[in-house]
TrEMBL record:
SUPFAM superfamilies: PA domain (SSF52025), Transferrin receptor-like dimerisation domain (SSF47672), Zn-dependent exopeptidases (SSF53187). Belongs to the peptidase M28 family. M28B subfamily. The lineage of its organism: Eukaryota, Fungi, Dikarya, Ascomycota, Pezizomycotina. Residues 43-59 have a biased composition (Polar residues). Residues 1-11, 89-102 have a biased composition (Basic and acidic residues). GO terms for molecular function: carboxypeptidase activity. Residues 1-118, 144-166 are annotated as: Disordered. Residues 524-710 form the Peptidase M28 domain. CDD domains: M28_PSMA_like (cd08022), PA_GCPII_like (cd02121). It holds the Pfam family PA. It comes from Schizothecium vesticola. This is Glutamate carboxypeptidase.
């Protein structure tokens, strides 16, 4: 049900529908078919009409084999005759019948004097040369049979003679039993019944719909499909979508979020996705109260001498809707006070420096800045809690994200004086998703933990601040405590000297009273395009719909790209195209709090995803600059380079993205732990990839992250939204439609060797050589040997198909599907069913978050054991991880 609008945090203006928002705009041309008026698009439409198939004498048809099934021939021919051409004389009819029999591969021994030697097979494209075929569907020629002419009649015969007139009685006489006329009547009645039955099958049953799905992309030229995807991207349609979705605040679970969920369902259906469904999960969320937050400096009498503004200046409310209040998601409620202490970035090292220099932090209020390490906001607050602070304030310093670095919003990428960077203080390195249901979905009837049992929440209150408020606090610290080290000095102006503060500092009150709901509904939306060959195997594309404010970058730059892809793939599906593997689009809710929507979906579908999840592509803060960025599984490395080569940047002389990427010495990076790919990678082992165009910075999670900022500063003309749409569309096409899954398992193997070497180097820095990592080295050798044998099959398959003129023999189809499945399962075979000790929600033996922070660490269970100092546990984890890797290698060769 829709959320109750009675709460202050839910209030807002009437929310327009998507159609109302874009009606009357300047993008009317976007409503035309993507194929209209586009030469390359028209080639796709043409390719849907199968071309004539040449007889066995042609050198282009592979020796007379008839293409069949899921992969099309390249439709290039000079024959433009009508599909229903008619011949008028007997000789042409005889020739036509011979051609029909040759094309249909019927044994016409009387006519041809030989048996047809063709074998049925599947034509393979995309990754193999595109062969030319001439193949035409024909309808049978219908000719009326004339009676022999009677010279005495008045009717003309075939030779121009006159046939005799028939009497009325003779013309309408009821046919006698056994007569030819009765036979014709019965035959016609049966024919009518057959036609009616055919119409029933077509219009009532789904037989032919299922056949069309099984035909898949077999009636489409793959090169034309690629061109269609690339040239159908419409930047102005993307712009209109973003303008609507970033038109008002929509924190997870609020009325704005609910309205966008309804718009998402409508657009999924409008653009042609199948099985559009919505999930509701009931999860733990908190919301601010308008009068429930305060940051005050108290005088000697305990009364406020100064109060922080907390909220940003209103930014043209009528134009962009109401602004979300400033707060921390999953923060703890409380009303605390204590002396103020400045602690730089709030790292463990910073708190240790304070302790070493005599600063008493117990019961104090910490003031820390965004940035540094850990980047994870929750861990900054957790470290303050562990250091004994009663509360924590976090501000955006101009030296990290403000005027010191360049122009500020709305005219530049950095946060201005009143800008407040909201965020979540969930401890994502311990629990992701609903913090009260770790390991299982938050569905009706699910068991729930108590708040005091969960390891996913901090236990002290916190609030975000603008630097204009932090400035006053820093000024009041003069001559209290110690002068800070030079690296601790920020960029806030008018601070004569930077001091730490101590027990003599001004007393600060931090009040954070909230609305808390342990069963707040949030809503995921799903839709798909069913595959034709491996329907159960899924290529997943996801983006989160909720945001801390207007969310024009995070995550609606990704939302608009996903909708553009849905529109394009939906148009292909409407024309009869089908991928080999199912494409599923997901709109997540609750990502900003703790990746809740995606995690609950994964936990509720754990077994299904381990079995059928092939790849997950994430689009979060997808466009915030012009530098292409990719992070994810090494499985995608080779395909990434291929598709980068096919997309050109018009702002850089139309150089390919690959050229620009290599010029900047970029590489496929590892994933961290702060977006919706985490549950897919760490819980079910689905190979995951995060894609974006990055920039210097953007006014993240503030009320300055608006459509206007993206339109004028972030991506004028929506060039990079369009480029990323092209890239993701082509990338997904290859994943879902190549006969052999384009995974780079060899690159994964090489990366595994580097990760083991990195672990050895790290272990040496601890000065503890008592635990041998040799079992991991041996496991890597097993993977190398297994992969060396495994990939031979693909080379042999490709050679066979090429030798067979691009046709896959029937006996190889099942083997190819099994080969794809083993490759897709390799990462899910690297899961430990027991999980990381004390963090059992994370099950991947290679990837996972740090124990105290958010940087990616390879082999997290082994590192945790080393850090704990428990050598026996470390040796056990090394042996266990090595055994899991060995078994994954062995399964490749089963």
């Amino acid at each position: 049900m829709a959320p109750d609008n009675g709460h202050d945090h839910d209030s807002g203006p009437p929310i327009p529908t998507y159609d109302e928002a874009v009606a009357g705009g300047t993008w009317q041309h976007s409503d035309r078919s993507p194929l209209d008026g586009d030469a390359e698009g028209q080639s796709l439409l043409t390719s849907r009409t199968p071309r004539p198939y040449q007889h066995s004498g042609s050198t282009q048809n592979g020796g007379g084999r008839r293409p069949r099934g899921y992969q099309p021939p390249t439709a290039e021919t000079d024959d433009e005759d009508s599909l229903l051409g008619s011949d008028s004389d007997t000789d042409r009819e005889a020739d036509h019948v011979r051609r029909e029999m040759q094309e249909m591969e019927i044994d016409d021994s009387d006519t041809r004097g030989m048996r047809n030697r063709s074998s049925w097979g599947k034509r393979i494209g995309l990754s193999l040369p595109q062969w030319r075929w001439r193949w035409r569907w024909r309808l049978p020629q219908l000719r009326s049979r004339q009676r022999p002419a009677d010279p005495s009649s008045g009717a003309p015969s075939g030779d121009g003679e006159v046939a005799p007139e028939t009497t009325p009685g003779a013309r309408f006489a009821f046919p006698t039993l056994g007569s030819t006329a009765l036979f014709i009547i019965v035959a016609r009645a049966l024919a009518i019944m057959l036609v009616l039955g055919f119409l029933y099958l077509v219009f009532v049953s789904d037989l032919f719909g299922d056949m069309a799905r099984r035909m898949g992309s077999g009636m489409f030229d793959p090169a034309s499909v690629r061109r269609h995807i690339k040239h159908s991207v419409d930047p102005m349609r993307i712009r209109a979508t973003l303008k609507h979705f970033a038109g008002y605040a929509h924190v997870a679970g609020t009325s704005g979020d609910y309205a966008l969920m309804q718009d998402t369902v409508m657009l999924f259906q409008k653009y042609g996705l199948e099985d559009v469904t919505m999930d509701t999960f009931n999860v733990y969320l908190n919301y601010p109260k308008a009068d429930g937050r305060a940051v005050e400096i108290l005088g000697p009498d305990g009364r406020p001498e100064w109060s922080a503004k907390l909220e940003e200046d209103e930014r043209n409310e009528e134009k962009i809707g109401y602004q979300a209040m400033a707060f921390h998601g999953h923060s703890m409620s409380g009303d605390v006070k204590g002396p103020l202490v400045y602690a730089n970035y709030g790292t463990r090292e910073d708190y240790e420096w304070l302790k070493a220099n005599g600063v008493d932090t117990k019961g104090a209020i910490a003031l820390v800045r965004y940035g540094g390490r850990p980047k994870n906001l929750g861990w900054k607050v957790k470290e303050a809690e562990l250091a004994g602070f009663a509360g924590c304030l976090v501000y955006s310093d101009p030296a990290d994200n403000g005027f010191v670095k360049g122009d500020t919003a709305p005219n530049g990428p950095y946060i201005p004086a009143d800008g407040v960077q909201r965020g979540s203080v969930s401890l994502t390195n311990h629990i992701i998703g609903d913090v009260l249901t770790p390991g299982w979905g938050s569905e009706d009837g699910a068991q729930r933990m108590r708040l005091d049992q969960t390891a996913g929440l901090v236990k002290i209150p916190s609030l975000p601040l603008a630097w204009r408020d932090a400035q006053v606090l820093l000024q009041r610290l003069q001559a209290h405590g110690n002068r800070v080290p030079t690296p601790w000095t920020g960029g806030v102006p008018d601070i004569r000297e930077w001091w730490t503060g101590n027990t003599t500092s001004p007393v600060v009150r931090l009040k954070n009273e909230q609305d808390v709901n342990e069963r707040q509904p949030i809503w995921n939306v799903y839709g798909r395009i069913l595959g034709s060959e491996q329907t159960e195997k899924k290529i997943l594309i996801g983006n989160h719909r909720d945001s801390w404010g207007f969310g024009a970058v995070d995550g609606h730059s990704g939302t608009t790209i996903m909708f553009e892809l849905i529109r394009i793939f939906g148009d292909l599906a409407a024309q009869g195209w089908r991928p080999r593997r199912t494409i599923e689009f997901m709109s997540w809710d609750g990502e900003e709090y703790n990746m809740i929507g995606s995690t609950e979906y994964v936990e509720a579908n754990d077994d299904l995803l381990r079995r059928d999840g092939v790849a997950y592509i994430n689009l979060g803060a997808a466009v915030r600059g012009n530098n292409f960025h990719a992070a994810g599984s090494p499985m995608f490395y080779k395909l990434l380079l291929e598709v980068l080569h096919d997309v050109q940047d018009p702002n850089f002389n139309d150089d390919s993205l690959r050229v620009l990427w290599e010029q900047k010495k970029s590489n496929l990076e590892g994933l961290d732990d702060d977006s919706d790919y985490v549950p897919f990678r760490d819980i079910v082992g689905t190979s995951s990839l995060d894609l974006s165009f990055d920039g210097s910075d953007y006014p993240a999670h503030s009320s300055y992250e608006t459509f206007e900022w993206v339109d004028q500063v972030g991506d004028p003309g929506f060039v990079y939204h369009a480029l990323l749409s092209q890239f993701v569309g082509l990338f997904v096409l290859e994943l879902c439609d190549r006969p052999v899954l384009p995974f780079d398992i060899a690159h994964y193997t090489n990366s595994l060797g580097r990760w083991i070497q990195g672990l050895e180097d790290w272990a040496r820095t601890l000065g503890d050589s008592a635990v041998s990592l040799e079992p991991l080295v041996d496991a890597h050798h097993d993977v190398v040997n297994a992969v060396r044998e495994f990939v031979k099959w693909e080379r042999g398959w490709e050679a066979t198909v090429l030798a067979n003129s691009g046709i896959e023999p029937p006996n190889l189809s099942g083997s190819r599907v099994a080969y794809n499945t083993k490759m897709a399962h390799f990462e899910s075979d690297l899961l430990d069913s027991l999980g990381i000790p004390n963090r059992t929600q994370f099950k991947h033996v290679i990837f996972g978050p740090r124990l105290s922070g958010d940087e990616i660490e390879y082999f997290p269970s082994i590192r945790d054991a080393f850090v704990s100092g428990n050598r026996d546990l470390a040796a056990q984890m090394v042996a266990r991880v090595a055994d899991i890797i060995k078994k994954a290698a062995a399964r490749l060769l089963e």
